[in-house]
Write a structure and sequence with these properties.
By secondary structure, the chain is mostly beta strands. It has a single domain (6-80), classed as Immunoglobulin-like (Sandwich). It contains no helices and 7 strands. A hairpin with a 6-residue loop joins strand 1 (9-12) and strand 2 (19-24). The termini are far apart.
Length: 81
């Protein structure tokens, strides 16, 4: 498995409205999910991460999604419409 490969995880749909899905190209499991707002503040932390993430309570805008796995931490951008 490639290290620090940003294409290792896919967030879709992006832009999202009410939820997004996390897919791994290599079957990697996400152990923690952290959502940051545009100011770098943590607005959600999840220890148990499912494939579908509900974002219906989030306002429109740009968010940073941090995915923590056993081997790495990856940050991806997500737009909420």
């Amino acid at each position: 498995m490639p290290e620090n490969n940003y294409s290792e995880f896919i967030l879709y749909p992006n832009p999202a409205k009410t939820e997004f899905l996390i897919k791994s190209n290599y079957g990697e499991t996400v152990n923690e999910l952290i959502i940051y707002n545009q100011f770098g503040q943590i607005i959600r932390y999840q220890k148990v991460v499912k494939e579908n993430i509900d974002v219906s309570s989030l306002k429109r805008g740009l968010y940073i999604i941090e995915l923590v796995t056993k081997n790495t931490t990856i940050k991806k951008k997500l737009i909420i419409n």
